[in-house]
Amino acid sequence: MIKPRSERRKHQRLPLSIPVFVRGVDQDGKEFLEFATALNISAGGILLATRRSLPRSSNLALEIPVAPLPPSSESPQSVRSLKAKLVRITHGERCHLVGLKFNKPLQDTGKGKINSA
What we know:
Blueprint: H1 5-8, E1 18-25, E2 31-41, E3 45-50, E4 59-65, E5 79-91, E6 96-102
Antiparallel strand pairs: 1-2, 1-4, 2-3, 3-6, 4-5, 5-6
């Protein structure tokens, strides 16, 4: 028996609107940097709205800008970087909805920190 789509997900999705920079290689083999918006995110992946149509199965690098933290904070990163693979794309007139699966799921380490790829 096939489970309904909503039950097949391993991770709960959170409806968050987050700016994301997407790096990859287009259909012509040229590198690109695209500004996109995350529409929802889970520990396993992310749904982006982007102006660029991407080849299916693209391997992408995502950069999520975060506010600079004081030097005494535990996380000195000013950008969170994640690796992901395109698994679904829906073409629209004004944008494309791109479903990405993270190469490594985000996980809570138990210390309030999130692992990233």
